[in-house]
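[agent] plan:
  1. take the single chain provided in the ticket
  2. run structure prediction with default settings
  3. attach structure tokens to the ticket
  4. add a short note for the reviewer (M.T.)
[agent] executing step 1
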Amino acid sequence: MRRVTCLFLLLLLFMFGDLPFGASVTAEVPLVINNTDAAKVGFNDPTAVTPIGGNPGTTLGTQRLNVFRFAADLWGSVLDSSVPIVIQSTFGPLPCDATSAVLGAAGPIRALANFPVTSGTIHQWIWYPSASANKLAGVDLTPGPLDPGLLQPPYADDMVAFFNGAIDGNPNCLPGNWYYGYDNTPPPGDIALLNVVMHEFAHGLGLSALTNPTTGEAPLGLPDIYSTFTLDTTTGKRWHEMTSSERQSSQVNSGHLVWAGPAVLKAAPTILAQRPEVAIITPKVLAATLDATPTNFGPGLTAKGITAPLGVADDRSGTRSDACTPLKNRVQGRIVLITRGTCPVTWKVAHAEDAGASAILLVNPTSDTPTRRDDSDPHVTIPTLTISDAVGLTLGTALRRSPVVVTLRANPRRLLGADGRGRVYLYAPRTVAPGSAISHWDPSVTPNLLMEPVLNADLDAGADTDLTYFQLQDIGWKVSQSSTAE
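[agent] step 2 finished; step 3 output follows
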């Protein structure tokens, strides 16, 4: 598992009275990398390497530092502020083993509340990470030189970023290495560093819930700006309105925690895919509309969709409905139910397609919530959807009673990864996940987004920051008009 994780060291500061404000807002803000690594370590590793993917560095450390600076320039090109943002950075070893690793961790060093602003307003008695607080104030609220070392006083830097230097060339730390190109096209198995750095820097810019995940407590009893947009649809409360115990319960209320910011709400229909669904057409007595999730292969669906009789795969071997071997029953022109089984999904789809199926419904028996499959195959030519075990049971039961005709279609009024009102789900796993939950989108969002809790190989954060742009806008950042995300 290649997981990205938030990490916070908070030095909390209340501010009252007047401050000497600086220059007016400019079109760009410089993000400065404060390299805190020791000689010959991390960013200073002298190992000779060849330039790659637009990165001209000729040592391992230089290539790492170049990616950080490239990511800083990308974020700086879209954010409006008059105050530089200092990112304290290190590329030392982090936890990892042969199958899993923490790729990176980042967050604000300071949070501030009740500071004066040059224009507009802020929420009183609400924490703002220092980068966003400085932007809103128009002046560096905690001025000083670069901090002399990693998390050392005077803590004038704005955020800290830890990245895992144990990954490169280490067979005991994941099967691949970091990829240091700017083009986000790593060889199979390698990890695009730029995507992870862009993700972590966004946490430091303010996409961070500062609540203690164990206790639900807010720092010094005050919530943060991120929490003011975190809405629990079960209680109807936002996190800044909750008690600590209510936040404890809310953080595991999967499927009921959403982002309530207006910029994201407006942008979501232009970025997220429409939710596919399965409509039982006949027999009319069983008419129903059931949820489904797309796979990463095959053509998409339209609002009109595909209508055909329903069938069940039968390969007459082992688990007969798993389609792990060529089908023996007639499914020509049918939409075919297939159980998950143990063989690759693309095998199943190929066997059904070879037998003449018009579409596939793949039952996922491990959860009541449909989840996307990681399998991919560019040669698949028929739509394939994943459905939950509960939906599969409903369809299978109906089919045993009488012939069933279904329509697979996209619903333009519902988005993948959002509730019925178009509010995008936040990650709230039923088991508390410190460092991963709440401050990320739920993995059900489609297409994959930068701020999901696990790295997805199809991202290109150098070209598209998807909903991240609009989420930052919700918490108070302004973005240069020439850099609108598409």
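[agent] step 4 note for reviewer: Confidence is low (pLDDT under 50) at residues 1-9, 15-27, 367-374, 481-486.
[agent] ticket updated
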